[in-house]
Amino acid sequence: MPQKKVFTSESVTEGHPDKVCDQISDAIYDQMLKTDPKAHAGIECFVTTGLVMVGGEARTTAYVDIQDIVRRTLKRIGYDSPDFGFCYKDIGVISTLHEQSPDIAQGVDGTGDSKEQGAGDQGMMFGFACDETPELMPLPISLAHKLTHKLAEVRKNGTLKYLRPDGKSQVSVEYDDGKPVKVTAVVIAAHHSEEVTMEKLRADITELVIKPIVGKWMGADTKVFINSTGKFLLGGPPADAGLTGRKIIVDTYGGYAPHGGGCFSGKCVTKVDRSAAYAARYIAKNVVAAGLAKKCLVQLAYSIGVAKPVSVLIDTYGTGTKPDEEIEKLIEKHFPIKPADIIKELDLERPIYEKTAAYGHFGRTDVEFPWEKTDKVDALKK
Fold this sequence. Notes:
Structural class: alpha+beta
Oligomer: single chain
Strand content: 15-25%
Distance between the termini: 36 Å
Number of helices: 10
C-alpha cells in the first residue's frame, strides 16, 4: 500500500546570528586563500550584543585584517544601522587566532608515517542526492532555502523596506509512496521594523515571498504561519548569540539525509569535514544525474593523517539500476576520495567559501560550486 508521510526542513537568512558567524569565518578563510592557496585554518566566530569574537587556529603567509573583514561582512549582510541594535560601524571586534597545532600539521602535510597528504581529522562525512528537484536536492530544504533567499532579496532591493536581516523559513512536504505531492505547511519568521503592521507584513510576505516560491505546491488546506507569536522587532545577535557551525543541517540536506557531525564554515579544505562532504555530494549527484539511482547516499570515513578512507558506503535505497556494490566500484574508479585528490579535482584552494555560508552548500542555483558539476555522468553511463 502507498504510504503517506510529511517531512519538514528549515532554513535561515544570512542575518541569522549563527549564519553571521559562518560568513565571517569563511570571509576570513577566503581572504587567506586570495594570497595563500595553501592556507590552513579552523576559524570560529561568536557574536552577541555589540561584540564579535574571532578565534581558532591558522597557518598562512597571508595578511588578514580581521577588523575590516568583520565590518565589511556585517555591512554586506545588512547590519548597517544603529537602529538594528547591531551595526558594523560600532561593534567591538576581538581576535584570538593562533597558529595551527604542529601535531595536526604533520598528518596533513604528509610528514608523519605516511608521505601522502592525510586527512586533517578523523570522522565520517555524508553526501546525498535525489531526483525530487532539478538541482537533485530534497524538496523541503530546496524550498526552505529559496524562501529565505527571497526574504533577503525583497529586503535588499527595497521592495519591503521594513524588513531587517534576521529571519527563518520552514517547509513541510507531504510524500505519497516516496514522491512529494504537496506542501502542507509554511512557516516564516521575518525580522522587521516598527513601521509595519502585522496584517500588512503577513499579506506582503504571503504575496511576495511565499507564493512565488511555494505557490505551485500549495493547496487550499496548506497552513501558513508568519510571525506566529506576533512582532519580531529585536533580532540578530542582540536577540540571540551566534556561533560558527551551529546550522549544519541547514547547510546540508535539511535532515533528509544523515550528517557526520562536523561543520564546514571556517575550515580549510585539508579538513575532510569540509572537503570530503563536498566530494560525497559530488559523487551522489553524479550517480543520480547518470540515472543509476533515484536516491543516493555516500558515506566516506577517515583517520587523521591517513589519505585513503577507512570505509566507503553507497546506499541507493533500493532505487539503483545496479547493485550498490557495483556502483561503489564505479565510484572508487572514477571519483577522488583521498584528500589531495579531492582538493585538486574540485579545485578547492580558491576563495569561494563566503558564498557557501548562507542558503546552503548544496543544490545552489544562484552560484556555481565545483562539487555541483555533473561531469562524470558519461563515464558512469558507460
